[in-house]
Amino acid sequence: MSETLAHVVEARGVAPRAVVWARNCHLGDARLTEMGIMREELNLGQLCRERFAGKAALIGFGTHSGTVAAASDWDGAMAVMRVRPSHADSYERLCHAARLPRFLLALRSDDALRCRLAEPRLQRYIGVVYRPKTEFASHYAESFVVPAVRSLRLVRRKLCAHSLAARQKTAGAPDTYPFGL
Asked: Whole-angstrom Cα distance, residue 20 to residue 3?
């Protein structure tokens, strides 16, 4: 993903801009999560910060509850599943407790807030796989939201995306049908 993004940005020429929508586990800075600290893994957020220096703005997304389209296991069939309410010690629950219908926490502009959120807290990561029965062990990890992301956005109740009606690919059509890229 990182290399593709770099090629797209370079191809756009002078002063290019790009928006990448990705899950928190891909877009938060791995160096500030268990992913990077304990397992020494990389992710797109870290690579963007390293490559684009101060020009990369990472915005974290979370949800307290709702639905997700995911599989129960790798290579499993996709299903729409109900997301359990967020853990009491998580960023998602902290944001949910504000009881605002739309919530965006701008972390760069408030030093007092950044200090109060400087300690690690649980963050939920739901991706291709969601396992509600083992949610705590399977989907939560400690992370430092400050300075991992510029802003934190909470959707109090997220509804999963549904695919558009599939278009039938005609014989001989390129792999990029129907877009022709």
From this structure: 13
Instruction: Supply 46's token pair.
Output: 């870290």
**Strands 151-158 vs 59-71: parallel, antiparallel or unpaired:** parallel
Q: What are the residues facing 111 on neighbouring strands?
A: none
The torsion angle over the Cα atoms of residues 110, 113, 117 and 118, rounded to 10 degrees, is 60
Q: What is the pLDDT of residues 77-88, one digit of tens each?
A: 999 999 999 999
Contact criterion met (CB below 8 Å) for 57 and 65? no
Q: Mean pLDDT check: name the lowest of 23-27, 106-110, 148-152.
A: 148-152
What confidence category does residue 169 fall into, taking pLDDT thresholds of 50, 70 and 90? low
Residue 152 burial by Cβ neighbours in a 10 Å radius (0-12, 13-18, 19+): buried
Residue 44 has pLDDT above 90, yes or no: no
Burial of 24: CB neighbours in 10 Å, binned 0-12, 13-18, 19+: buried
Q: How far apart are CA 85 and CA 66, in angstroms?
A: 8
Q: What is the pTM of this model?
A: 0.71
